[in-house]
Recover the amino acids of this structure.
């Protein structure tokens, strides 16, 4: 269908052309949206596809951010070493936390992911000598990719982020279309049946927990490079809740929904904080409204509208 | 060697003794029926056998192998399959996707993360064949929670059969079905391979006695009596248990 | 020796505040299957409103009762009008209660400012008593006694009254409880309000010990979670034992490892998770 193709092409062209039309502030906002889209998709794997509601995703986001920052600042590692190092630390944490958390489900799982994440926050907050405590780590350098490629400029960094997130998104889409991805959905719908069919459900839950943490970690590293700064609130439950909202608002279990949710929430926060100091209260009200009115999220709403229009 | 055997299995739910010293032997190729009034412990026994709950005491053997402490998925891999009293389907997935998940597991269930499941020709074909055999091709793309109750029961049974199990546990396969649907399911059960060992819980006496060659009667968590259909039919104690229900 | 006794008393008295919070959280979850993320906010409001009432009336009892009733009323209104629409839907409940937490948190800063405040002790317990060769604040001793009294009242309500029986029936099986003619919907509202009452009571009673400050909602919610993880959701006994355990761990943690006090709380929590994922007395 040529129209659909044209729409896709136009969309991609628009995304690629943004640095040419946007000033630094809004380009930065767009960069932030793309990073958060990855963050939200990582959580969607867990919540939307496997049905494991977590309030601790920020742990892997923040841990990777801190590790990348520390490796660059304290050890002078360049991005080729710091990035894998940061991802590894987060994956190990996800494995350790996952082994514990996947012993539970439902509300216990929710509480434990929150508690473990706050534990990491507490360490970042309290260990001043390592992490700078509540002041955080300033002056984290942008990645030094190659001798003559500088990511200092907003445009260059934007394309860098776009490339990485595009690759990650491709992998995520392949993942959810694979038998593994369908097994996750199976677990979400009926663990009992999955077990009776011969699936080692515990192993799948642990694996998705770690993979989800890996992609959150990637988002975290991109974010610390973006801000050139990391602080304990990368790890706070408010951040975990924020990305949870993006997943639900966008529509859990679709990958694209949470990405859209990320764009919407980042935009909303930007507008709200520009107009009032009480923007947290506004966000809180948004949470409540989404919960009451749009539990299937925007994609759910869209599907319902489409069905309505075709009269099906 | 029996296909499936329990030796003195008991189950205690925090003070409530749901099963007490249950010993059953099901021979290969048998059509073994379990009957008893509500609360007799029949489904609890099934949950023990499939591994959903662990036994408080006793032993369970599958083809002579001790499965007492094996988790459900390992018992499935050893050839045990079951259906559920309340259908357990993957509600928001299509019927076809339901079957593919079962088929993928039956074929080894490897942790494939990169290739699309729906790109696997063999898997697609296998699922399509299965659906055609059961005359359910027309609902292949419908979400499992949108099909009729009778169709759900059929899919529930289909999922259990996909892996060609050696031992099949049927938990009230005709519950809630219309007369016509009961006939269909009964036919399906009758056409199961003779070398498949089938253990069934059933309340519909016509189906039950028509299907079985051996019957175990349970009441209040215990095995009361066991024998062939004629013997059980004429057993006064069994009649008393059921009459006592009125 | 004296050191240990004093620190234990500190831990137990703080544990009682946690018990007040966790008992409500546990009760609400046990009956309604709602994990109320705004429960810490009820604690916070109890502290702030209580302090305001104390300043205007001078009576600690009036402040404690008034604040707790006010917050209970808020709980009742929220539950009846909004929360009940999300019955048995976990994700929307999480989102909703977290949103409520943010709203109350920001509102508190708006209304009462962002500075931490101290709450003066009630006249009756403002002095310290002689314990061997040490003096110890009588207020903390009062909190310990009060906590046990509340535990006893809750136990009596749960085991010996009709309403307790109805709650227990509802916890066991909501559908059957409804079929038995129990007004489950009213019960939900009452229990939610009561849970909020207990949390707010903890907030104002805890005021003289830990103060009233922004961020207390998050902190106390987290500790409350650790309490129910250790003690088990839905269990009164679990809330008490878990509360005392966490109170002691928190206190001794702060004494011995001030920078990493969190670890002393989390280590036992991790242990319980490894051995009994549903907590000491929790139902699966």
């Amino acid at each position: 269908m040529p129209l659909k193709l044209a729409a896709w092409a136009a969309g991609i062209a628009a995304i690629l052309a943004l640095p040419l039309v946007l000033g630094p502030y809004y380009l930065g906002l767009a960069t932030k949206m793309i990073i958060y889209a990855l963050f939200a998709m990582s959580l969607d794997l867990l919540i939307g596809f496997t049905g494991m509601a977590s309030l601790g995703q920020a742990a892997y986001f923040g841990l990777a951010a801190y590790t990348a920052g520390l490796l660059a600042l304290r050890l002078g590692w360049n991005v080729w070493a710091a990035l894998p190092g940061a991802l590894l630390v987060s994956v190990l944490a996800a494995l350790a936390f996952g082994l514990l958390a996947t012993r539970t489900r439902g509300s216990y799982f929710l509480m434990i992911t929150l508690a473990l994440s706050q534990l990491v926050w507490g360490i970042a907050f309290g260990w001043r000598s390592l992490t700078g405590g509540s002041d955080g780590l300033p002056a984290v350098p942008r990645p030094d990719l190659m001798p003559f490629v500088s990511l200092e400029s907003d445009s260059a960094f934007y394309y860098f982020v776009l490339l990485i997130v595009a690759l990650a998104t491709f992998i995520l889409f392949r993942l959810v279309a694979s038998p593994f991805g369908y097994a996750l959905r199976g677990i979400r719908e009926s663990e009992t049946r999955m077990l009776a069919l011969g699936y080692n459900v515990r192993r799948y839950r642990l694996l998705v927990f770690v993979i989800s943490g890996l992609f959150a970690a990637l988002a975290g590293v991109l974010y610390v490079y973006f801000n050139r700064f990391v602080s304990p609130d990368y790890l706070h439950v408010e951040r975990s809740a924020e990305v949870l909202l993006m997943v639900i608002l966008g529509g859990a279990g679709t990958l694209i929904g949470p990405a859209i949710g990320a764009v919407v929430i980042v935009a909303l926060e930007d507008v709200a904080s520009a107009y009032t100091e009480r923007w947290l209260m506004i966000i809180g009200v948004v949470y409540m409204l989404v919960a009451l009115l749009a539990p299937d999220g925007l994609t759910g709403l869209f599907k319902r509208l489409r069905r309505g229009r075709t009269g099906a | 060697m029996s296909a499936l055997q329990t030796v003195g299995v008991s189950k205690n739910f925090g003070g409530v003794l749901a099963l007490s010293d249950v010993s059953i032997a099901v021979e290969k190729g048998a059509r073994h029926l379990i009957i008893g009034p509500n609360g007799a412990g029949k489904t609890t026994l099934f949950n023990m056998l499939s591994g959903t709950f662990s036994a408080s005491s006793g032993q369970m053997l599958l083809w002579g192998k001790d499965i007492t402490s094996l988790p459900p998925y390992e018992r499935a891999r050893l050839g045990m399959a079951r259906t559920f009293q309340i259908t357990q389907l993957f509600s928001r997935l299509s019927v076809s996707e339901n079957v593919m998940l079962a088929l993928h597991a039956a074929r080894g269930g490897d942790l494939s993360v990169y290739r699309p499941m729906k790109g696997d020709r063999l898997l697609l074909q296998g699922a399509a064949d299965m659906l055609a055999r059961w005359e359910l091709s027309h609902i292949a793309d419908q979400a499992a929670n949108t099909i009729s109750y009778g169709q759900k029961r059929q899919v529930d049974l289909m999922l259990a059969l996909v892996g060609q199990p050696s031992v099949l546990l049927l938990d009230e396969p005709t519950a809630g079905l219309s007369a016509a649907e009961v006939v269909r399911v009964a036919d399906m059960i009758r056409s199961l391979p003779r070398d498949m060992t089938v253990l069934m819980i059933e309340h519909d006496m016509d189906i039950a006695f028509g299907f079985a060659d051996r019957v175990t009667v349970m009441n209040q968590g215990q095995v009361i009596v066991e024998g062939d259909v004629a013997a059980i039919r004429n057993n006064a104690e069994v009649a008393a248990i059921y009459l006592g229900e009125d | 020796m004296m050191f240990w006794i004093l620190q234990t008393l500190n831990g137990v008295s703080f544990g009682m505040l946690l018990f007040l919070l966790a008992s409500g959280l546990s009760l609400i979850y046990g009956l309604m299957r709602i994990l109320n993320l705004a429960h810490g906010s009820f604690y916070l409001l109890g502290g702030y409103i209580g302090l305001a009432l104390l300043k205007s009336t001078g009576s600690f009892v009036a402040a404690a009762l008034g604040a707790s009733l006010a917050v209970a009323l808020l709980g009742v209104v929220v539950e009846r009008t909004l929360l009940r629409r999300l019955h048995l839907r976990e994700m929307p409940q999480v989102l909703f209660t977290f949103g409520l937490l943010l709203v109350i948190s920001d509102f508190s800063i708006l209304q009462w400012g962002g500075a931490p405040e101290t709450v003066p002790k009630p006249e009756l317990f403002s002095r310290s008593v002689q314990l061997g060769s040490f003096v110890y604040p009588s207020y903390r001793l009062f909190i310990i006694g009060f906590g046990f009294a509340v535990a006893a009242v809750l136990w009596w309500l749960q085991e010996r009254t009709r309403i307790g029986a109805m709650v227990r029936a509802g916890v066991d099986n909501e559908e059957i409880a409804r079929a038995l003619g129990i007004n489950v919907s009213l019960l939900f509202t009452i229990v939610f309000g009561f849970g909020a009452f207990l949390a707010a009571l903890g907030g104002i009673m805890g005021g003289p010990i830990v103060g009233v400050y922004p961020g207390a909602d998050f902190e106390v919610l987290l500790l409350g979670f650790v309490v129910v993880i250790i003690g088990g959701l839905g269990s009164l006994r679990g809330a008490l034992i878990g509360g005392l355990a966490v109170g002691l761990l928190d206190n001794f943690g702060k004494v011995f490892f001030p920078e990493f006090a969190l670890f002393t709380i989390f280590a036992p929590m991790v242990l319980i998770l490894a051995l009994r994922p549903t907590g000491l007395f929790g139902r699966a």
Remarks:
- Chain B has a mean pLDDT of 89.
